[in-house]
Amino acid sequence: LSGDSVRTLIIDAQGHVWAGTQGQGVDLLDPRTGKASNLRHREGDPRSLPDDSVSLLYTYHAGRVWVGTDAGLSEYQPGSHDFINYGERDSGVMFADPHVRAIREDHTGALWVGTLAGGLDRLDLQSGTVTAFRHDAHDPHSLSHDHVWSILEDDAQRLWVATADGLNLFNSGSGAFVRYGNDTNDPHSLRASYVMSLYQDRGG
Question: Which of 72, 100, 120, 135 is the most exposed place for a label (fewest CB within 10 A)?
Answer without folding.
Answer: 135
